[in-house]
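Researcher: Next sequence.
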Amino acid sequence: MLRLHPAHPTPAPAAPTRRERRRFRRSALSERVRVVAGGRSASAELIDGSAGGLFLRVEGSQRPTAGSELEVGFGAGSYGGPARTEERRRARVIRCLSHGDTHYLALRFHTPDALRIGATRLG
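Model: Next structure:
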């Protein structure tokens, strides 16, 4: 007699896999940045700036969708330090992985100088 067992439940598509989480692992080079979307601003952490764009970790209940536009402010006061002059650039979300209220964003900037600013912050 053949017995059929139900398939194992698959994780929700919004949850990143273990492999994807490793890709977004935090590096020692990080800086506080601010993400402004829809009039609200959220604190974010820059985790990588070496892949032709920037990868950010953002805490918040609203999940940004791929293709949406964000404004990123660099130099928004680093780790509780004194606030510096903030430089803002527009960016498009290429990919968003979410785990609860933590979102990992891959961004591509509209202007080439924004990436240079991000690279200067890292180096």
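Model: The chain is about 15% helix and 40% strand. Helices lie at 18-23, 112-122.
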